[in-house]
């Protein structure tokens, strides 16, 4: 989804310490006379630029009242240093625009584990502030959230300080029983790296447990340690990339949104399909577990976090896991993203939407294909099909 562009902020120039082309030269100062017996020391070479310093070292302030109806976000515009193509591998050949580089310091306004800035050097669209940032899921109309842990049959472990023995940890035993594992095991390593197979579920220690907040089985609860950035991509809209390397198996983020019924999601989905966008995520773990019945759906259109900006890839670098902490209601799983492999600095974060492309029927009068732009060698070419209006 791309927000509308309502107006340009007034740009204000500041001198840059390196005096790039177009800026007045530095004012000459009179130097003290040096002894002829001492040679002038060679200048120390500047450190190589990184994705963080490239953006940080070229900031000009701007506030634009058209971006948000709430409190004005902190925004900057960067226009005196041409964008570096090394940071934008998804852009097609050709020169990048100069003077259109915009930045928002933290789209979460302090609600995320770390500040998440927004950068756009593709067009004049402002930061995508057309949603409310939430750190936890909220219930939609008619949705009753799970009751307190005491009435859900959830037990707390009696481990001292941290859970190190999977034979004694009740949480690990419950997970093994739910997943029908042959052997009881902890879901993470001592360094918080996930070691469960894909499609597995995670049961972390809860508030009834006696272990501390440093327990290896409380990874998601401690939040993400990843440095992320939202940026604009041609043909794909907004996306998310890593500002620091993310190790394989590391927790990246939770997918948050409004929990709605399956029927409500169907109605909303028709509107989203017409706009060629969707933020719906099926919470169908109970159905996959052959328990039957209707399932709930997470909708991040109006409420969400950084995960709502993850794009699809046919060869993704993120894995999706269901997890539970304070209850065991299979109709209300929470969704977590973990690194499928090592993710490099500047690499876009993507997961496989796994939509049914319905290629067998071909394109008909009432269907319109949404093409995939992931660019991977194994690209399926079609992301999904939607009803044309």
**Estimated radius of gyration:** 25 Å
The biggest sheet, with number of strands, parallel, antiparallel or mixed sense and barrel status, is: 6 strands, mixed
**Helicity level, as a percent range?**
under 10%
What is the mean pLDDT? 73
Strand content: 15-25%
- Stretches where pLDDT is under 50 for at least 5 consecutive residues are 1-38, 51-100, 357-368
Name the shape in a single word: globular
Sheet with most strands: strand arrangement: 1-2-3-4-8-9
Distance between the termini: 18 Å
Count of separate DSSP helical elements: 4
The helix/strand order is HEEEEEEHEEEEEHEHEEEEEEEE
Q: SS-based structural class?
A: mainly beta
Let me know the number of strands.
Answer: 20
Explain the overall architecture.
The protein has 389 residues and is mainly beta. Helix content is 8%, strand content 21%. The chain has helices at 51-56, 170-179, 262-274, 285-288; strands spanning 60-62, 75-78, 101-104, 117-120, 132-133, 138-139, 201-203, 228-233, 237-242, 251-255, 258-261, 280-283, 296-299, 303-304, 311-312, 318-324, 334-339, 350-351, 367-371, 382-387. The strands form six sheets. It has a six-stranded mixed beta sheet with strand order 1-2-3-4-8-9, with no helix packed on it. Strand 8 (228-233) and strand 9 form a beta hairpin.
Secondary-structure blueprint:
Blueprint lengths: L50 H6 L3 E3 L12 E4 L22 E4 L12 E4 L11 E2 L4 E2 L30 H10 L21 E3 L24 E6 L3 E6 L8 E5 L2 E4 H13 L5 E4 L1 H4 L7 E4 L3 E2 L6 E2 L5 E7 L9 E6 L10 E2 L15 E5 L10 E6 L2
Parallel strand pairs: 4-8, 5-14, 6-11, 7-16, 15-18
Antiparallel strand pairs: 1-2, 2-3, 3-4, 8-9, 10-17, 11-13, 12-13, 16-17, 19-20
């Amino acid at each position: 989804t791309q927000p509308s562009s309502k107006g340009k902020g007034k740009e204000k120039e500041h001198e840059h310490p390196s005096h790039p082309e177009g800026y007045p030269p530095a004012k000459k100062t009179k130097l003290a006379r040096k002894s002829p017996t001492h040679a002038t020391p060679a200048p120390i070479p500047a450190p190589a630029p990184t994705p963080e310093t490239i953006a940080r070292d070229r900031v000009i302030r701007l506030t634009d009242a058209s971006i948000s109806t709430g409190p004005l976000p902190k925004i900057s515009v960067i226009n005196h240093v041409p964008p570096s193509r090394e940071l934008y591998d998804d852009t097609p050949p050709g020169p990048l625009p100069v003077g259109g580089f915009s930045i928002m310091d933290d789209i979460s306004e302090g609600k995320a584990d770390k500040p998440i800035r927004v950068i756009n050097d593709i067009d004049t669209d402002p930061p995508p502030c057309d949603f409310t940032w939430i750190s936890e899921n909220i219930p939609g109309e008619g949705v009753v959230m799970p009751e307190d842990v005491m009435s859900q049959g959830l037990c707390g472990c009696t481990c001292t300080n941290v859970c190190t023995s999977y034979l004694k940890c009740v949480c690990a035993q419950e997970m093994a029983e739910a997943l029908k594992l042959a052997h009881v095991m902890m879901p993470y390593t001592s360094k918080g790296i996930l070691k469960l197979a894909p499609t597995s579920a995670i049961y972390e220690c809860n508030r009834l447990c006696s272990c501390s907040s440093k327990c290896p089985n409380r990874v998601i609860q401690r939040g993400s340690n990843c440095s992320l950035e939202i940026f604009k991509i041609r043909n794909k809209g907004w996306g998310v990339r890593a500002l620091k390397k993310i190790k394989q198996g590391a927790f990246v983020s939770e997918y948050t949104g409004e929990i709605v019924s399956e029927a409500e999601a169907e109605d909303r989905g028709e509107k989203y399909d017409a706009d060629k966008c969707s933020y719906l995520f099926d919470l169908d773990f109970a159905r996959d577990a052959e328990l039957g019945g209707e399932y709930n759906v997470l909708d991040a259109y109006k409420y969400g976090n950084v995960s709502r900006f993850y794009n699809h890839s046919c060869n993704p670098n993120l894995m999706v896991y269901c997890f539970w902490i304070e209850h065991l209601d299979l109709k209300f799983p929470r969704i977590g993203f973990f690194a499928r492999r090592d993710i490099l600095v500047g690499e876009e974060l993507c997961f496989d939407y796994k939509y049914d492309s319905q290629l067998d029927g071909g394109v008909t009068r009432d269907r319109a294909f949404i093409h995939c732009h992931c660019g991977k060698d194994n690209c399926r070419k079609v992301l999904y099909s939607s009803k044309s209006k």
